[in-house]
Amino acid sequence: MDRIDSLRAFTKVVEHQGFAAAARALGLSRSVVNKAVIKLESQLQTQLLTRSTRRVTPTEAGLAFYDRSLSILDEFDSAVDAMTSLRETPSGNLRLNAPMSFGTLHLAPLVAEFMQTHADVTIELVLNDRLVDPIEEGFDLSIRIAELSYPTSLINAPIAPAKRVLCASDAFIANHGRPDTANALRELPCLQYGYSGTAHHWRLNGDAGPKNYPIQCRMWSNNGEVLKHAALSGQGIALLPTFIVGAELQSGQLHSVLPDYTPTDLTLSALYPRHRHLSTKVRAFTELLKARFGDTPYWDLVT
Question: pLDDT tens, 143-197?
């Protein structure tokens, strides 16, 4: 193994917390990976890993070297991919992961468009709302809608703002009126994303800055589209992302309420394992995401 291969073996051992799992990820034998790391430690005259029967963890020096190794591999792979992309068109299998509602509402037509344009690419799209580890589960690209905070082993490419809005239907407003202060939420039926054990409040930005406001929760669900349908039938006020309720806000089926109290915006991001972030197929798909959703997404044209 050359030094680049040794660095790659070392980072995989750190990421998978063991030699056997790292070897499987690299398609090598355990002994080859083990020898590569031992040789690296010998060259550096530093112990990089603490080995036990259960798992392998980096030493303090190993953790620092891991971060530097990622940067080196990132630069090396970027250079290789940049040269390769000059003569290659996107091809091979592209493994994607995305949240369920966003995937069905907005990503599905984009994937179809991408397949039509890039005939040599096959797509594997997995939709779920759990927190996925792209490296551990082998995804080339994962779409997240959250605050911008991710591990250093992942490259984060922000695609578009993901706004959220408090909304209600005409039927709800006719029965309960329009609230004029967030304190009224404790007396009004609300529709909460999550489970019954989650906090019974919403964090909103108003004149007093960010503050938690108690709510009277009528319904919980871990699916935003379910909550949207409950809101449309007048069952309560919902706090939902505009990519779920944008069309209903535009058509007037739902209305923004309490506009002076705003939820914190999230970000729609594409995440890639560092060593894959400039592959031709990933770059092409990310560019399409930015072209379709970037700046002001179409679901935010009227809110």
Answer: 999 876 666 667 888 999 999 999 999 999 999 999 999 999 999 999 998 776 6
Separation between Cα atoms, residue 67 and residue 51, nearest integer Å: 19
275 CB burial (10 A radius; 0-12, 13-18, 19+)? buried
Residue 189 pairs in a beta bridge with: 216
CA distances from 267 to 20, 143, 250 (A): 36, 10, 21
- Domains delineated in the chain: 3-85 (1.10.10.10), 92-162+266-300 (3.40.190.10), 164-256 (3.40.190.10)
189: phi then psi, degrees, rounded to nearest 5: -65, 130
**Looking at the whole model, is its pTM more than 0.70?**
no
With beta carbons less than 8 A apart as the criterion, state whether 1 and 32 touch: yes
Q: Which residues contact 270 (CB under 8 A, 6 or more apart)?
A: 141, 142, 143, 156, 157, 159, 286, 289
Nearest to 11, CA basis, from 274, 282, 278, 271? 274
For 3-37, write each residue's pLDDT tens digit.
Answer: 898 999 999 999 999 999 999 988 899 999 999 99
Strands (E) across the chain are located at 49-51, 56-58, 92-98, 121-127, 141-146, 154-162, 164-169, 189-193, 201-206, 209-214, 216-221, 237-241, 254-256, 266-273
Q: What is the largest CA-CA distance in the chain?
A: 75
